[in-house]
Amino acid sequence: MIPLTLDQLADVVGGDVADATDGTRTISSVIIDSRAAGPGALFVPLPGEHADGHAFVGDAMARGASGYLVASAARPLPEPGALVVDDCADALLGLGIWVRDTVAPIVVGVTGSQGKTTTKDLMGAAIGAGRACVASPGSFNNELGVPLSCCRLDESSEVLITEIGSRGIGQIARLAALVRPDIAVVTSVGASHLELLGDIETVARAKSELVEALPADGLAVLNADDPRVAAMAERTGARVITYGITATADWRASGVHLDGRACARFTAHGPPGEVPVRLALSGAHNVGNALAALAVADAVGVPLADAAAAVATAAVSRWRMELRAGPGGLVVINDAYNANPASTRAALDTLAALDVPGRRWAVLGLMAELGGTGDAEHASVGAHAARAGVDRLVVVGRRAAAVAAGALEAGLPADAATVVADADAALTLLRAEASGGDAVLVKASRSVGLERVAIDLAPAASDAAAPGEAGA
Fold this sequence. Notes:
Blueprint: E1 4-5, H1 6-13, E2 16-17, E3 26-27, E4 29-31, E5 41-43, H2 57-62, E6 67-71, E7 82-85, H3 88-103, E8 106-111, H4 116-128, E9 133-135, H5 145-151, E10 159-163, H6 171-179, E11 183-186, H7 194-197, H8 200-212, E12 219-223, H9 227-230, E13 239-244, E14 251-258, E15 263-270, E16 273-282, H10 286-299, H11 304-312, E17 322-325, E18 331-334, H12 341-353, E19 360-364, H13 374-387, E20 392-396, H14 400-409, E21 417-420, H15 423-433, E22 439-443, H16 451-457
């Protein structure tokens, strides 16, 4: 972030420093989770599901924060270092806009029903190989996460990559008005948030708001393998380039091969030429994500060879297709951050592609917000698990019966499917029956908490708390 004193911040967000002697305190970062506090941090307390963030001001300051926002209605002030504003969320939004406008980077917006976080992470690596780049952490993709991402910019930043989520018509348009993207990337349109959006065509309309926000001299980067995404070319006056396995795509892949860890190697072909690519990420679906990253890196001037080398070693956000080694040769795919039908099918295909001597377990939980299509979509995923060659299917909690029924109807033996009540029951079963040489996929919507299963079976450093991760 651009360092500012509390006095300067007060001018930016329209607030007042409560104690004039605090006005010279310097702020160099913005946080919404008190656990992330440290010297230079500005803590922004926000109302939460279970508590008001103002209750954590003392914790943030004890951890070394240099200041905090406080809503004018929240007096008395608990600590020195207060910047009083009318509304903390509005102040955060205003600060994000100011930082974005002051730095004026090239802005890349990324959206899609699935793949947007991994694509954003791959872009961060590819663009970072040649430009000073800031990529939004984790899934910072909503009205809080997007301004927080903007606040991470500093005077040296050349490119901002921000993930943009949608839970309703108009949300992407509002967020795009904040960041004003120069480049828009749409990865996919699928059955996500149907409880809120109604049907897939409405999902497509919501996602298209990002390309509609582009200026005439902007660039839309669209997945040619998804017809609904490809059709968005008609919804923008900006230049359009496409990517995908489709032979007519501007950026395409040939010679795709998966190794024993289901990691792809392929040749990427694009306007600047071709380059061999080897991914460290499991899943054939990541080929398209990597192509999108290469296309955007090329658009902002990063040499193709440099971008490809960076993509090959890119690290992605936690709990997304993480391939973990457990005891005795057990392999765990922790893809428990979120789930919808398309991403779950892709994860099951990845499980099937792993070269393991033992059994393949799929531990699946609820795919949330599917509305009236919920039972049918869960049954379809169960059927896909059976066709993908899963040896044992463990389904957890709500909609579990629909998943199991779909799998059994598609030919999975009755003794291979187990319905359990919760993550603890799934873990008890796996501890007793999974063995070395087996592979276990863990996948569900975030609310199910199935990451606990993967963490217990195969702990990793990324399991440490990630304070402030926003969005889903």
